[in-house]
Specification:
The chain is α/β, with parallel strands linked by helices and 292 residues long. It starts with a strand and ends with a helix. Helix 1 crosses helix 7 and helix 7 packs antiparallel against helix 8. Strand 5 and strand 6 form a beta hairpin. The longest helix has 15 residues.
Length: 292
């Protein structure tokens, strides 16, 4: 998806309705969604290939150009009947006033073609990251997991929705606090959280489950350990895209041979940097080294 930002000044309320009038002074465009995961990997020095579906339109071409500039290899299937997903954010006085979404689910035919490409490409990559935003791009996620496992690849998934059974067999799931609560219910304390996490991990045959918990940091659950990492944010400006940075950093660390707990610890520090930036953001290797 393409993230667009309109920055402006707010000095009066509209005479037409009780809403602020934003005088737009500057616009920006950034890769969003799974594209933000890929650009986070590239910004840290990794190599990322993005496989997805876009429309045959201006936002789709813009997205491809932006990713090329950030050294991300793209394999886009174009659907003439599909407008590329765009999220437009209006910013006034450094605060988000409104977000406008333009989105339509891709056709089943295009998704089938993407599945064939996934099967042929997976063997040349170290790690598979599946970012589910509930937009229809991962309709065949179960088949993708099976294909990756046949090739001996580890699969990291940022999940969506209230049915996680489709992710069975993945290496790691990285739900945020509200997403985990939607699936497993509210927990009373950390012991209760660990019990619910272990049940989900066991039910889905996961090697690891990482629950990102906003100001409470993040918690890793594996067969051998439970690791709670406290938040590293010094000043929270914008949490959008923080989950993308987390899964991107973990994927890159695992591909480089890191232990899972170390990868989570580094990802926690990476998230602490990007939440201090506006919008979907990345961090450089030097920025990460400065906080690790």
């Amino acid at each position: 998806m393409l993230d667009r930002y309109w920055f402006g000044e707010v000095s009066r309320i509209s005479p037409e309705a009780p809403v602020p009038v934003v005088h737009v002074k500057k616009t920006e465009e950034r890769p969003g969604g799974a594209a933000n995961v890929a650009r986070n990997i590239a910004s840290l020095g990794g190599q990322a290939t993005l496989l997805s579906v876009v429309g045959d339109d201006e936002p789709g071409r813009t997205l491809a150009t932006l990713l090329e500039q950030e050294r991300v290899t793209t394999h886009f299937h174009k659907d003439a009947a599909l407008p590329t997903t765009v999220k437009l954010r209006v910013i006034g006085r450094q605060q988000q006033l409104m977000r406008i979404d333009f989105e339509t689910p891709p056709s089943r035919e295009v998704l089938e073609d993407k599945l064939d490409d996934f099967e042929s490409m997976v063997d040349t990559h170290d790690i598979v990251v599946l970012s589910d935003y509930g937009k229809g791009g991962l309709t065949h996620v179960t088949k993708m997991i099976d294909a990756a496992k046949r090739h001996g690849k580890r699969i990291l998934i940022d999940p969506k929705g209230d049915d996680y059974s489709k992710y069975r067999g993945a290496t790691m799931l990285t739900p945020n606090r509200s997403e985990f609560r939607e699936v497993m219910g509210k927990w009373r304390d950390d012991t209760d959280l660990a019990q619910r996490a272990e049940k989900l991990r066991d039910d889905l045959s996961l090697e690891a489950l990482l629950v990102t918990r906003s100001e409470e940091g993040m918690s890793l659950f594996t067969a051998s350990e439970v690791l709670h990492e406290p938040t590293q944010a010094r000043e929270v400006f914008d949490v959008s895209g923080a989950g993308d940075t987390v899964i991107a950093t973990i994927a890159l660390m695992l591909a480089a041979g890191s232990d899972t707990s170390i990868a989570v610890r580094i990802a926690n520090r990476a998230a602490g940097v990007v939440v201090g930036k506006l919008g979907t953001a990345t961090l450089s290797r030097s920025e990460l080294e400065a906080v690790t």
